[in-house]
Every structure is written in C-alpha cells, then in structure tokens.
Structure prediction request, 224 residues.
Amino acid sequence: NAGVTQTPKFRILKIGQSMTLQCTQDMNHNYMYWYRQDPGMGLKLIYYSVGAGITDKGEVPNGYNVSRSTTEDFPLRLELAAPSQTSVYFCASSRRTGTDTQYFGPGTRLTVL
Amino acid sequence: DAKTTQPTSMDCAEGRAANLPCNHSTISGNEYVYWYRQIHSQGPQYIIHGLKNNETNEMASLIITEDRKSSTLILPHATLRDTAVYYCIAENYNQGGKLIFGQGTELSVKP
Prediction:
C-alpha cells in the first residue's frame, strides 16, 4: 500500500512550456485534491474531485486544468507555465469528506524560469 | 469557513508538553477543528480533529473551549521529531472537505 504517490519529484520548466503533474492513490479514495504551497506560506487548494468524472475549482485554479477518469489518478495540467507557478505541489486524497482525514503525497517541486 | 489565528512560532523543551493555541472566534456550529502538521517540506500529516468534546489519540490531545472560540493542541512529551509547522483549520463538514491552510505555528523542539 503506497498511499499517495506523485511524479516527478522535481521539475524545471521554461516560461510557456506545459507539463502534467501525476498523482495516484491506491486506497480507493473517492476524494482527491491538488494544493500548491509557496515559500513560507500555507497550502492553497487548486482543484478537487469528489469522484471519477467530477472535478471542481478551489481557491487558485487559474492556469491549471485537471481530469479524473479513474478513481486512482488525478493529474494536474499546466498549459502555459509562468514564473508565478513556481511552487511545491501536493496531491491528497480522502475516503470521503467531513471527518475523514486527508492523506498527502510527498510533493512535486516546480520551478518556472 | 472560519478564519483561524495561531502564533507564528513557539519553542518547547524536549520531553516537555507542547501546548499550541488556536483562535477561531467565528467558528460555526457545523465546523470541525482539524490539526495537521508539516515536517520540513513533506506533505502535511493529519494529527487530530474535534467538534465540541476534547479528543485524544496516540499523537496528541485536543482541548476545545466550551464556547468553541479557541482550542489547544497538546503534544504531551515533545521530541525533536515533533519540530514542524502545525496548522489549525476550521472546516465545514458539508463543504467538500476543502481544507483552508493558514500560515500555522512553527514549533521548534529543543534539546
């Protein structure tokens, strides 16, 4: 049981490039989340999903897209990378909402130059 | 979601209890108080949560005041490995489980 895994661990992008951050969970959780964390700050929710085929925006969705075709996977897409997207990205999952805890992945550190 | 206020940083001696306060004066009746921690850029880790009653688990205790406007996370015997940023979050049970992270309290446990 690996929990929540994220790839890659690190990535450097040039302005205008695109990439997909991968997130997979093996706990059969319905809920999945993407957060970003800027230096010295708390996490901010980008997008979340309550099940396969259902996604919704969080606090800071601009510049990102997501899809949820399976229960296990929740990729985050950056289409036109900008320096403002330099951050650490965390994926999380939970069995359900409310009192269920969220399990976080190890993060992807992204730098846009 | 209710806004929470925490001290920016705290120190604690190894082996002593660490008491981390959190104010959530605008909390509503259906909002739980959650505590997570983040150790040196790792993904956040769940610690404990509660609604009205005090709670205890293998990691910590959570004391919530009767008016629910504040709470305290207690690590009974802090170790060096408890050095981390601790986040207090008030979350509405019915709003999709979205956690709103503030800046948290940076706890330094010193030998």
About this structure: The CA atoms of residues 37 and 43 of chain A lie 5 Å apart. The two ends of chain A are 36 Å apart (CA to CA). Chain A touches chain B through 31 residues (CB under 8 Å).
